[in-house]
Fold this sequence. Notes:
Elements: H1 2-6, H2 12-20, H3 28-42, H4 46-52, H5 60-73, H6 80-97, H7 101-112, H8 121-136, H9 142-153, H10 157-171
Amino acid sequence: MLENYFKTNTSNQIKSILKETVFSIWSEKELYSFWTKNLISKNDEIDYLIELLDADIYSNEALIALGNKLLKTIKNKPNKYQNLFNVYFKIGNCFYHENEPKTAHKYYKKAALFLKYIDVHHHFLFYFNLAKTKKSIGLVTEIEEQKLIYFFLSKENWEKKLYKNDMKDYFQFSA
């Protein structure tokens, strides 16, 4: 039941009923804690759990709780620095989707510390999200925009086609 409580496709009415009955003795924070512990104990694959942070299956709040729990557990796992980048980056994305760009920016800055351990393919997405976030909170984005263009131009043609409209929207011009 707890898993369904955090799914995005569970209606607010059902969530309210569960919160008032079955889960009434626990705070929201405790529910997140139980859910993340259970999810991590059932899944040995850290990569699977990190990928969940991108999924639209669960609410952003639940994914943020999962990400913060993963930050505590991945320090003893292989590929520590790549995993730290991915978790910080994906938590930042969750906060951005929750309309909290300042908090997202803090997580992106933490992710930047581990950027050199990541495949260059991911650099474009990182700079794209970082530039969007900085722009939304009124910070200067010149350096990120230069890197964004550089990594966009280094993409394969089929990848450029995928991101072309995003780039147009970001720079507010049409081809």
